[in-house]
Amino acid sequence: MHLTEASTYAAAVLGPIESVEAVQGFVGNETFRIHAASGATAYLKSGAAIATEARAIEQAHAVGVPAPEILATSHGQPPYLIMAEVAGTPSDDPGVLIQAVHALRRLHEIRDADADWAGTLTPLITDLGKLAGVLPDDLADRLRVTMPPFIAEVADVPASLLHGDLHARHLYAVDGKLTAILDWGDACYGDPLYDLARLTITAAPETVLTAYGLDPREHVLQRALSAYRILWSLTALYAEHAADGDWFDPHVRRIAAELS
C-alpha cells in the first residue's frame, strides 16, 4: 500500500489528512501513522490477518480487556484496519505486567468448543521441511520426535481465545496503568498456557505465572511452557520465512536452548 492510498482510506474516516508516515513492524504487515488536520492521530494497518485482528479486538473489549479502538475496517483489496492512537507508551513495569496477566485471564474465559488446537499445532511439525536451510536438520529431527507426543497431550485442552504474541512492546501504559494491549493479528483459540509461554520469553516467569494463579515451581507446568515456547518460535520462523524476512537466529537459538 502506498502512502497516498493510506491517506485516501484514512480521510474517509478522519477527514482531511495532514501527514502519513510508514511505521516499521512485522514484515508481513504494512502500518501507517496518520495525522489528521483535526489533530487526531490514528494507525492504519494492512495485511492478511486484518479480519482476525478486528474480531479479536471486538471480543477483548467485550470482556473488559483494554485494546485499541477500531475506527474502520475494510475486507476488500487491500484489507485494512484503522485504529485510534492509544494513550501511553510500551511498558515493562512489573505492575503493568501483572495487570496484563489479569486481562489475559479474562480473555481466556472466551472459549470455542469447536476449535482444533492439535490441528493448529501439528503442521508446525509436519511442515518442517519448509524450513530447510533456516532450521538446522538436527533440531528438526529432534522436534519430529519430541513434539508430537506433547501435541497429543494437549489436544483436548479447552480452547480459549489467545492473543498469540504477547510481550512488553504490546503493553501500553500511562503512570503505571495498562491502557491497551496491541497487535491482535496472531489471535487464535488454544491452550492458555501458550499465551503465558510467549509472555515468559521476555517477562519474568515467576511474576507472570503467580499473577495468573499458577505455581511457577510446578515441573509439569514448566515442561509445558518450554514446549510452547518452542512451538511459538516455530510459528515465528514460518511467518518470517513466508514474508521473506531474515530474523531467524533468535528463534533458532531459543528452540535449541529449550531442547537442551
TrEMBL record:
<dbReference type="InterPro" id="IPR002575">
    <property type="entry name" value="Aminoglycoside_PTrfase"/>
</dbReference>
<dbReference type="Pfam" id="PF01636">
    <property type="entry name" value="APH"/>
</dbReference>
<feature type="domain" description="Aminoglycoside phosphotransferase">
    <location>
        <begin position="48"/>
        <end position="207"/>
    </location>
</feature>
<dbReference type="InterPro" id="IPR051678">
    <property type="entry name" value="AGP_Transferase"/>
</dbReference>
<dbReference type="InterPro" id="IPR011009">
    <property type="entry name" value="Kinase-like_dom_sf"/>
</dbReference>
<protein>
    <recommendedName>
        <fullName>Aminoglycoside phosphotransferase domain-containing protein</fullName>
    </recommendedName>
</protein>
